[in-house]
What does this fold into?
Amino acid sequence: MLVWLCLNPSTPASPRELIIRDLEGRTSNLVLEEDRITLGRSTQCQLAYPDDVGLSRQHLALTRAGEQWTVEDLGSKNGTLLNGEPLKGAKPFNLGDRIAAGHLTIEFVGAAQTPAQNTVVFVESQDSQTATTLIANLDGVLGGPSGGVEDQNKTAVMTGNPQTWALIRAGRELAGHRPLNELFEVIMDLSMEAVMAGRGVLMTVEGNELKVRAARGAGFHISSTVRDRVLREKTSILVRDAQMDQNLKGHMSIVDQKVRSILAVPLQTNDQVIGLIYLDQPNHIRDFSREDLNLLTVMANVAAIRIEHARLNEIEAVERAMQKEMEQAAQIQQRLFPADAPKADGVDIAARAVPARHCGGDYYDFIRFPDGKIAMMVGDVAGKGMPASLLMSSLQARVHVLFEDSHEIGEKIGKLNKATCGNCPDNRFITFFFGVYDPTTGEIVYTSAGHNPPVLVRATGGYELLTGGSVMLGILSMAKYDEYRAKLEPGDVLVMFSDGVTEAPNPNDEEYGEDRLATLVAELSARPAKEIVDAIHSSVHEFTEGAPPADDITVVVCRRI
It folds into this structure.
């Protein structure tokens, strides 16, 4: 992210303001009425940009003392530049200085000036036609290399030359929207026709290699010296007579093919070379000229820019398609979560999962058994995005196959682990908590596969962690999982969660933690389970000061009434 701040001269008495422009060119104004302005991702900053990950939460500060302003970098991760130099500590911010810190552009100016009302004045004139007045239209100018322009007295004035016409035609041909493969062919034809070449080839740089994209002719033997000078030195090369050139006449391929004149130019966009165009004359039809070299150099630059635009368009099209697929995948994943929590006398259950990306690796689910007991589970697949969501979907399917009743949950989790080990990649694993709750007694029988211990907040005060269990799913196929028991008394609240809750960091890199979670739940223990779930999500968001979540956040609340 790049932020420019520019201080322009204005009288001390005039009001000062910031003109803020974002990456898309939108502007907003901020009148400087305070003596200190902070900028960063944190919502506590006067200039807050929570979605700009290039900024630190507290990035920089502008401070006024009398008429003097200073700028200070607040220990930002990506740093700040003052007039192109790294900013260390606080420095004077004087008229005309510039600060760089992100994608925003912020100008420090005086009072807005009203534009002059007489910038443009139209005056009446007679519609006279004289010999000094020439009239042209686009069709006439672009009619061909021999097209003409006529004045009102029908005096013909011929314009242009073959080079000018070649550039005009290239501009028109390359202005349309063509796929890359077709674009390469068009550029090749335009280059050949512009300088009347006998053969030619267009190549682009792909990694460490040159890939042929279009060719007219075959059997090209190009000097590595010519290639390297074009690509590395960004130089256009004309060899009028290759048979006489000291660097080329020793190459038998050049001699055998009777190559006389050679043109090689870079496909260059600004400072980057993305390929080259090579043309030659196998026979002495005509030698290439300085005008040909200049013309092809300019055409190659235009072509290179058009190629890059076409590439970006294709990349954007692929990204849009991927974005749409991810959104659809996220919708499918959301439908895998239970539409409603199970209901039973004496218990109130609610849950909610929020992925850090479109698709997440967190999992929660419920199973209502015939004997009235309720299975509650929370899982967390290592990683995020589509791979994690696919493993999560696979986990859900296996759980519903294995758990047909509420008995022997430790043994069934062992079978689930074996199946996961056989299908889980080496760099993936799943933490999992599974508990069977009896609404009539308040007892929960549970086991854990390396998952965060749920927090049991007591109505009488304090809280407990439901510890116990074995290794994560997908690590050790022979792992054993024991069963543990706990009991919820009336008014107790059990909170199952993923590590995106307790490990969420604030700007000082402090974690949310179990203590803060238990304190919040204790304060809300009399509220419905859904309100407790929503309050936990809101509390984590406030704790991180609105920063994008680093991990999926899942909360399941079971409250005994």
Residues 290-336 form the longest helix (47 residues). The two ends are 51 Å apart (CA to CA). The chain is about 30% helix and 30% strand. Residues 20 and 390 are 43 Å apart (CA to CA).
